[in-house]
What does this fold into?
Amino acid sequence: MSPRDYAIAALDDAHRYADDVISGEIITGRYTRLAVERFLRDLKDGADRGLRFDEDAAIKALGIFSYLRHSKGQQWVGKQVELGPWQSFVIANVFGWINEATGLRRFKYVYEEVARKNGKTTKLAGIGLKGLMKDDQGSPEVYSAATKRDQAKLLFDEARRMIQQSPALRRRIRIVQNKLSYNRNGGLFVPLSSDASTQDGLNPSLSLIDELHAHRTSEVWDVIVSAVGARLEPIVWAITTAGFNQSGVCYEKRSYSVSVLEGSPDFDDSWFAVIYTIDDNDDPFDESCWIKANPNLGVSVDLGYLREQAKQARLMPSAMTNFLTKNLNRWVSAEVLWCATDAWTRAGEDYTYEEFVDWVRDNNATVYGGLDLASTRDLAALGLLAVSDDGLSWRVWVNSYLPEETAKEKIQKSPVPYMRWADDGWLTLTPGITCDYRWIMSDIVRYCDELPIDCIHYDRWN
It folds into this structure.
């Protein structure tokens, strides 16, 4: 099959994928479906906003993969890379949409989120080689970016191995240590990290950021974005699995992506987003929903492997975080879960504070407190644990506190419903920009008056 025939077939797969998602033939989560709906809606109405889907541009991007050979895996090494329909859909979107007025690419930023083992690195390495060889950028500069050089080299090394596996690419691309060069257009492909001695002089045409969730700060993202201004149609492409740091750069970009997919009033036509994850109301142990986070299920993701991970997650709370984030692409709030969430949910009951007090008295319970203070950015919390006289039953009551101005700021950047929690009585908002400890002290005094509190332990930090 010629490269063009390969690419045309891949583009057909992309269109068929979109149709099958809408028809329900392919099971996806809500955010994936929103990305597909956006594509189909723009095919119909995009011309009204000056947008055009250029099939030749999409075919050009997809065609590079006909040259690529897998470099890892006993069952894959040396074989041609076959794009899945979902992968063709993403690539065709990013490179196919054109701004009619300028003739330039529509999308400059890409946020892609998908579970582990779904071919992220292989696909992104192919995208990097496309940017090196088949992008009319004038001396293109392609960077695989990460916080540490070793991490940045993972994607770069995959591209280098692909070249070594392909006779056609070996003839065209020169490999010199940590640089790939393409003499025909003066292009280069190098790894970039925040711990490099200098980042001056960057002029990126394509920047690939793998596992953005692992970035503790926005330093790498900011360096790249600040350097792309000289290019007419640069692309900054972040691909990641879910994580647990919901205050970091990755979750910030994810939240923005969700707002784009949901069609926020400040709609961003330059931002492409697709998120493969199970939905909030899905049971993580229901196998039928696993494909939502694993579009490559049955290809590079083995069902038996997922079943093993699910079994461990059921039995070991410490394995639950890994299963949720890496295998089901669901964000969690802690790196290690001390309790299996499904067990916690099954044990739950609804009760008011007054009913909590009555239960303590009826069961001759002892109450223990826990206090964790915060000043400006984080939640402060005062928790009570009541244990019945026979030790067989427990009840929990927790008050959380946040400065009102912090809550207003956070809701602009995060989907967390702080104001709704406050309205429902689950969160106390103290006036101003710092947490007013007098509110917490007032609750402590009240609880000590009304309950048999044995002690209140506290986090000693600060």
In short: The chain has 17 helices and 15 strands.
